[in-house]
């Protein structure tokens, strides 16, 4: 299964002096597979230490964090010969061994020539962290582009990269997007969906549903294991409240997260700050801040206690409501509005665009403000189906005269006027390529 982040791993390897690479991400998004696959393709061998599966490996770091001594200890403990020019050291689930995490600082300072990768599912929750001494990357569930890559349709993928609006291309991409809404981007679910493509739809759906069940059960168990000073029950309640609140918005934009009624006798932002921060640091949720002034830097205009909360995977989001495959394909259910908005949020997130921002003034609101690499601010309106009227977007254009505005819809799209581009929603992650249209 190919991942777009592989290109950044290759850039890291090619650097003359490199910091240890630390890969963050939610549980089961494919961190271990990505690094092992990358290592198998680009190194003689991968020397792997899995601190979750083999906690006794933490003993290697007990006496000394001197890199030279650690390299000797690792070779002795694993009975391997290590070639610093051709081998990769991989610390898996490094959050289970604080001293291994601390050691990255010393490797960074005295052994920048080494190839060292680490990964963890709870990196954001760790108190002591080697700030500035590691090269941080984040891995998320598969984006829609990566889902297309897994579908193994190279010609269609090529048309996707060209932002084709031909009707035949649109119909194929739209059907795959509806598949993606059901399956989501968790690697096991995606692999199962395409590996069993010769089987009937019902059997494939049952397998994916079982995977979703198991994943959600695993996350609930993690709440108890890693909650620390935050109540695991409160984390669970906030986690379940997010899809419940999202579902309240059918064809309207998703509104700010409401703190009241989530946890008994807890009503304000400060009451829920701990669980929300825990979920955000665990990469299970993401924020979108509504602001009234669309100027850079966006962060100067946001309020920390006013934000939307989105779920990290659309497949799991739909699963929590029991939405079946047929409902996704028919687009007849009443929750498609928030599902589409959550999809766009996750596409932005996969491109490294976090946190996201929305525009809101009086009764007018735009789902997203997207700042391109060149600094241009693009208002992005999301329309879940074929209803494409966008009064708020017209209001924004009249007030701020953007060079480009985008409306994401369920059709093949087109251009409306000099500024407004109407794009199929599956191109949400391609906004930096708009000049190619």
Side by side, the strands of the main sheet go 7-6-8-9-10-11-13-12
Give the class from helix and strand content and strand pairing: alpha/beta
The beta-strand count equals 13
Largest sheet: 8 strands, mixed
The Cα radius of gyration reads: 23 Å
- Uncertain ranges: none
Fraction in helix: 40-55%
Sketch the topology as an H/E string, one letter per element.
Answer: HEHEHEHEEHHHHHHHEEHHHEEEHEEE
Description:
The chain has 437 residues and is α/β, with parallel strands linked by helices. The chain has two domains: 6-139, Rossmann fold, CATH 3.40.50; 144-436, no CATH class. 41% of the residues lie in helices and 16% in strands. The chain is built from 15 helices and 13 strands. It has helices at residues 6-14, 31-42, 67-78, 98-110, 144-151, 154-161, 167-183, 187-195, 201-226, 232-246, 269-281, 314-320, 325-330, 336-350, 391-400, and strands spanning 21-25, 45-50, 87-92, 116-120, 135-139, 285-291, 308-311, 356-361, 364-371, 377-382, 405-409, 414-416, 420-424. Strands 7-6-8-9-10-11-13-12 form an eight-stranded mixed β-sheet, with helices on both faces. A five-stranded parallel β-sheet has the order 2-3-4-1-5, with helices on both faces. α7 packs across α12, α8 packs antiparallel against α9 and α10 (232-246) packs across α11 (269-281). The two termini are 29 Å apart. The model has no long low-confidence stretch (mean pLDDT 92).
Could you give the topology of this structure?
Elements: H1 6-14, E1 21-25, H2 31-42, E2 45-50, H3 67-78, E3 87-92, H4 98-110, E4 116-120, E5 135-139, H5 144-151, H6 154-161, H7 167-183, H8 187-195, H9 201-226, H10 232-246, H11 269-281, E6 285-291, E7 308-311, H12 314-320, H13 325-330, H14 336-350, E8 356-361, E9 364-371, E10 377-382, H15 391-400, E11 405-409, E12 414-416, E13 420-424
Parallel strand pairs: 1-4, 1-5, 2-3, 3-4, 6-8, 10-11, 11-13
Antiparallel strand pairs: 6-7, 8-9, 9-10, 12-13
């Amino acid at each position: 299964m190919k991942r777009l982040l592989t290109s950044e791993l290759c850039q890291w390897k090619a650097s003359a002096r490199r910091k240890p690479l630390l890969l963050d991400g939610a549980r089961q998004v494919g961190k271990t597979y990505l690094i092992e696959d990358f290592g198998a393709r680009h190194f003689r061998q991968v020397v792997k230490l899995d601190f979750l599966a083999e906690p006794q490996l933490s003993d290697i770091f007990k006496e000394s964090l001197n890199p030279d001594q650690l390299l000797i200890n690792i070779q002795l403990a694993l009975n391997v010969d290590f070639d610093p020019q051709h081998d990769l050291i991989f610390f898996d689930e490094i959050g289970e061994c604080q001293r291994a995490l601390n050691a990255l600082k010393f490797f960074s300072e005295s052994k920048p020539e080494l190839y060292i990768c680490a990964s963890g599912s709870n990196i954001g929750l760790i108190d002591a962290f080697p700030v500035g001494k590691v090269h941080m990357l984040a891995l998320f569930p598969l984006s829609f582009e990566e889902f297309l890559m897994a579908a193994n349709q190279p010609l269609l993928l090529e048309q996707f990269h060209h932002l084709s609006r031909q009707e035949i291309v649109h119909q194929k991409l739209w059907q795959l997007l509806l598949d993606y809404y059901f399956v989501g981007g968790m690697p096991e679910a995606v692999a199962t969906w395409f590996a069993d493509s010769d089987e009937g739809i019902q059997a494939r759906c049952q397998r994916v549903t079982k995977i979703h069940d198991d994943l959600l059960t695993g996350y609930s168990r993690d709440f108890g294991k890693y909650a620390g000073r935050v109540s695991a029950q409160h984390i669970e309640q906030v986690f379940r409240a997010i899809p419940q609140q999202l579902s309240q918005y059918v064809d309207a934009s998703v509104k700010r997260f409401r703190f009241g009624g989530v946890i008994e006798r807890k009503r304000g932002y400060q009451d829920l700050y701990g669980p929300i921060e825990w979920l955000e640091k665990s990469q299970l949720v993401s924020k979108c801040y509504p602001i009234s002034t669309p100027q850079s830097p966006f962060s100067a205009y946001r309020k920390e206690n006013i934000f939307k909360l989105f779920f990290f995977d659309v497949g799991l989001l739909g699963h929590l409501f029991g939405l079946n495959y047929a409902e996704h394909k028919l687009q007849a259910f009443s929750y498609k509005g928030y599902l589409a908005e959550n999809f766009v949020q996750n596409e932005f997130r996969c491109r490294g665009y976090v946190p996201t921002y929305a525009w809101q003034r009086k009764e007018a609101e735009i789902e997203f403000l997207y700042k391109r690499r060149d600094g241009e601010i693009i208002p992005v309106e999301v329309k879940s189906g074929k209803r494409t009227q966008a009064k708020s977007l017209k209001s924004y254009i009249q007030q701020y005269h953007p060079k480009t505005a985008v409306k994401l819809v369920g059709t093949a799209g087109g251009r409306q006027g000099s500024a407004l581009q109407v794009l199929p929603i599956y191109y949400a992650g391609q906004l930096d390529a708009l000049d190619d249209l």
